[in-house]
Write a structure and sequence with these properties.
- The protein is mostly beta strands.
- The chain is built from four helices and 18 strands.
- The protein folds into two domains: 161 residues, Chondroitinase Ac, Chain A, domain 3 (Sandwich), CATH 2.60.220.30; 82 residues, Barwin-like endoglucanases, CATH 2.40.40.
- Strands 1, 4, 5, 6, 8, 9 and 12 form a seven-stranded antiparallel β-sheet that branches.
Length: 312
């Protein structure tokens, strides 16, 4: 009969007690091995692996380093440059909260006295990966970074409480508009925005809790389409989304060949709402090429003179 040394037996019990205490019940079930498997070959289908928390996932991506970023930072569509997560108290939201992010290129604002519950705001600054499905459509180019916002709060009826603004890259606002990316159709869809050229931003008011938004620029200048009319200065002037104020244009009615020379003094029409409209004419100018009752007429627009600010 084999006699065990008392000291050796005690050492074995201590070792088992120490290493046994490090077993994580979240990582292994009662029987992590199949009946027909060797004890050294675990069945991975029966092991519950812990998932990293959202805080652990927020890794800063340094474009200057030759590294492969984690899967949550780069995928087939986008590269996340910066991430901002902020908890907002109910009293801050009710008072109206403005959050400036990514060097003030994206501003998120909650209108005051509309919402009154705490929330978490997640923001991302994004550029596209090569071959991304989010690439701008033909005739357009991105004029800003892509910004994603996710507003997670108890209140679901936002009642257009959310305002945001995006800063555009170039010095002028011509041919630029806000868009959001529709994941269901894989298309950029226009958002009616307000241009603030003094700060090079476009502002929008929405009721959605999350979206990926960007400014797209129309690089194909529209020369033919519909002209509408509006009352403004009562002169030979017009609104154009393609040319800056001060530019002179010749507008010709394609049905009767009548033409008028106008000076651009406003921006419009919004092609995210009216994609077939090339220009808005003051009613005085419109009546020189068509009857006011028509409302619209098909025209050709030609550039006559361009102001210095329009030359890039």
């Amino acid at each position: 009969m084999i006699k065990l040394n008392y000291k050796i037996l005690m050492r074995l019990l201590i070792i088992l007690a120490i290493f046994g205490s490090f077993v994580n019940p979240a990582l292994a079930q009662e029987s992590p091995f199949g009946d027909s498997q060797d004890a050294n070959t675990p069945n991975l289908n029966q092991i519950q692996f812990l998932q990293p928390s959202d805080q652990q996932k927020q890794v800063i991506f340094d474009t200057a380093q030759a590294i492969i970023p984690p899967a949550n930072i780069i995928n087939t569509n986008e590269i996340v440059l910066n991430v901002l997560t902020q908890s907002i108290r109910a009293e801050e939201i009710y008072a109206g909260k403005k959050i400036k992010a990514f060097d003030n290129k994206f501003v998120f604002q909650i209108d005051k006295k509309i919402l009154n519950s705490p929330a978490i705001l997640n923001l991302k600054e994004i550029i596209l990966s090569p071959g991304s499905k989010m690439i701008a459509p033909n005739g357009f180019q991105l004029a800003s970074r892509i910004y994603e916002f996710v507003y997670a709060g108890a209140e679901t009826d936002l009642k257009k409480a959310i305002w945001f603004s995006v800063k555009y890259d170039s010095a002028d606002y011509f041919r630029k508009n806000l868009y959001y990316f529709d994941d269901a159709t894989n298309k950029w869809v226009g958002i009616k925005g307000i241009i603030s050229n003094t700060v090079s931003k476009i502002i929008a008011n929405v009721s959605v809790p999350k979206a990926k938004v960007a400014i797209l620029e129309d690089i194909d200048i529209m020369t033919e389409g519909y002209a509408s009319w509006y009352r403004y200065k009562g002169c030979d002037c017009a609104a154009s989304p393609d040319y800056p104020k001060g530019t002179k244009l010749k507008v010709t009615n394609l049905k009767n060949n009548k033409s008028v020379i106008v000076k651009v003094n406003d921006w419009g029409p919004d092609r995210s709402v009216h994609p077939d409209r090339v220009i808005d004419l003051d009613v005085v100018a419109f009546k020189q090429i068509a009857t006011k009752s028509q409302g619209l007429c098909q025209v050709k627009v030609e550039l006559l003179t361009v102001v210095e600010s329009a030359v890039k």
